[in-house]
Amino acid sequence: MRMYVAGEWSDGAQQEELRSPYSGEVIDTVPIATTADVDRAIGSAVHAAAHQRRTTGHEREAILRRAGDIADARVDELASTISRETGKAIAEARVEASRAGDLLRLSGFEGSQLYGDSLPLDASPGAGLHRLGFTLRQPCGVVVAITPFNYPLLLVLHKIAPALAAGNSVVLKPARQTPLTALKLVEILLEAGLAPEAISCVTGPGGTLGEALVRDPRVRKISFTGSTATGEAIAKVAGVKKLSLELGASCPVAILPDADIELAAQAVALGGYANAGQVCISVQRVLADRAIVGDFLDALVPKVEAIRAGDPASADIGTLISEREARRVESALREGTRHNGARLLTGGERDGAIISPAVVADVDPDSPLSQDELFGPAVAVTSVADIDAAVRLANATHYGLGAGIFTGDVRNAVRFAREVDAGSVHINWTPLWRADLMPYGGLKGSGIGKEGPRWAVEEMTELKTVVLHGAA
Predict the structure, then answer these.
(1) What kind and span of H or E run contains 427?
(2) pLDDT digits over 243-272, tens only?
(3) Which strand ranges, in their side-by-side order, compose the sheet holding 378-384?
(4) How far apart (Å, rounded) are the C-alpha atoms in residues 16 and 179?
(5) Catalytic site includes residue 246
(6) Considering 85, 110, 197, 246, which one is annotated as catalytic?
(7) pLDDT band, residue 471 (cuts 50/70/90)
(8) Which three-class secondary structure state does DSSP give residue 240?
(9) CA torsion 77→313→250→363, rounded to 10°?
(10) Residue 211 annotated among the catalytic residues of the structure
């Protein structure tokens, strides 16, 4: 498949093969873009940004509505592409693909609602009644979107749809492992009537291309989803630009003695293993009160053992993105059970890029299995003395993306919501729940800025103040 640069589909000077994480077979080839391609894409985006800012909200919304309708008609094609290039179970891929149309339409609507505010200038001493003040929102200009492999459709859309809805041009750099879905999305947008130069999609190595994209002074806004280490590197080299960084996590879930244990076990079995655990808001740490930790594990383990990992065409969960990633997770689980009495209760076996869903009990909260983002199908369970310990340990990593608590006591629920430093807190469910319209983003090392169309559109615009002087 060709990449799309500066209004043209391009084969590039070199190509590379994309292989299925499950079977290893070649599923397609894509170009290896160069820094010259990046320069050409940004140059085209600068020209397109001048055109985009002169379009009306009505025009932009109409394009994204058409794109949403096209995406609805291609759910099966998009799902198949997602599954082939990620190893994601086809059932999960269909869920992802089925959300694309609504996300495009919602972004188009939010882009048409760019309200300003009137300013009470007469409240300032000496301003008098001869002036009127108000604010306007205008597009940033050139937006760079750098996206991860785990949701190659939705996480691309959460960046580029609001950017286009707000009147920007976009240069997209999808994950090297999963460019095909992004390129199909570009096809849909162009078919819907997007100006040819309003979007470019460059494929290839993240290091070389990413640095060229984020350093370029013609870029005004960067939206990145990926590791905290890469996000920190971007912040160091980007210069004076607007940044949205969706970074790593080690999401905690607290389970108190008055919780519905069966509900908690069911929710963790869903929230810890979806997409083979390759979700930023996946449950990684369970902080279970010592009074009920045994009952919780008795309820959880059979549910986890019932999750079928394997062939994406038929299993509940598919592969990790590569055998290399599966080896990393296998090693992390092995090391995690060698220290301080941690016990592997089930799972953790590797077959190529597949890891069987794992539960690890008695995990030291200071161990890497708790502190570092695992990004694999495993949950670490730690017993805690009370709500005080649960809150303290929930906050005891440098991440702060999502958290959850199971309790029947509204006082503990309110306390957890107020005191835990996370971008989203869920009461009687896990953090692995996201409505596309809600604000989404982390605290601490989990990032800066918010996604969700309404908030992302705001992030993709700049605020301008206008003062009308009626007299000196």
Answers:
(1) strand 424-427
(2) 999 999 999 999 999 999 999 999 999 999
(3) 343-346, 358-361, 378-384, 283-289, 251-255, 402-406, 424-427
(4) 12
(5) yes
(6) 246
(7) confident
(8) coil
(9) 180
(10) no
